[in-house]
Amino acid sequence: PHVRCSGRRCCCYAISEIVSRFERKGYKLVAIKLVVPSKQFAEKHYHDLKERPFFSGLCDFLSSGPVLAMVWEGEGVIKYGRKLIGATDPSKSEPGTIRGDLAVVVGRNIIHGSDGPETAKDEIALWFQPKELVSYTSNEEKWIYGVN
Ligand SMILES: Nc1ncnc2c1ncn2[C@@H]1O[C@@H]2COP(=O)(O)O[C@H]2[C@H]1O
Q1: Is the C-beta atom of 93 inside 6 A of ligand 1?
Q2: Model confidence over 80-97: pLDDT tens digits?
Q3: Which pairs from 119-122 meet CB under 8 Å and 24+ separation?
Q4: Would residue 112 show up in a list of annotated catalytic residues for this protein?
Q5: How far is ligand 1, taken at its centre, from the CA of residue 63, in Å?
Q6: Homologous superfamily of 2-141 in CATH?
Q7: Which residue ranges does the record assign to the Nucleoside diphosphate kinase-like domain (predicted)?
């Protein structure tokens, strides 16, 4: 299971704040890079939404600056990662969630997370080459999962 998020406002505290929330939970970072996606790339990323009225504006926004692309691994990371992220509309996201704490307006997307294993697979393949995914065992894993 993976979650992929695109951090915006990356010139201030948002990068460390977002990374630390996944890290603190105990998920494992297996890929990370800062990229400025083209509009064409953004359209591929959001292809499911191409019929929506906000599609073009959303793709303009995604391609307007750097995005921190990440792959996080761990038990239940997609489902729970979405809880950490909060509701799509930041005005309805609970305080304590990333969108609840760090965003105000829907569409000015502080973070995106894959919504299921199939989407995660596709999105990881879009954003990363296989060799950019690092396979390793972290020292904390035996404490986090209770196995040796
Ligand atoms: N009404 C809307 N206006 C603009 N953007 C939207 C609207 N609804 C959803 N979105 C964006 O569409 C994105 C789709 O998935 P994300 O989790 O990346 O975050 C969502 C929002 O940023």
Answers
A1: no
A2: 999 999 999 999 999 999
A3: 120/1, 120/2, 120/3, 120/4, 120/78, 121/2
A4: yes
A5: 14
A6: Nucleoside diphosphate kinase-like domain (3.30.70.141)
A7: 14-135
